[in-house]
Design goal:
The chain is mainly α and about 70 residues long. It is built from 2 helices and no strands.
Length: about 70
């Protein structure tokens, strides 16, 4: 009787403990992309405004020369 009880206890312990074994975690997710709606759009708008200003200044200088 003791042998049967010991075998049954061993098997049930192994079954219960194997369900709590965890696998290795998955690889981390891909990094998120750069947010275009943040400060990057303001930087692009400021760059465009600066380019327009420089083009107008260049045009005015060319008109004054002749």
């Amino acid at each position: 009787m003791k042998t049967t009880y010991l075998i049954l206890l061993t098997i049930s312990t192994l079954i219960i403990t194997t369900s709590s074994v965890f696998a290795q975690p998955a690889l981390p997710a891909a990094p998120s992309q750069a947010p275009i709606d943040g400060g990057l759009s303001l930087l692009a708008a400021a760059g465009g405004a600066y380019a327009i200003k420089k083009l107008r200044e260049k045009k005015n200088q060319e008109e004054e020369l002749p």
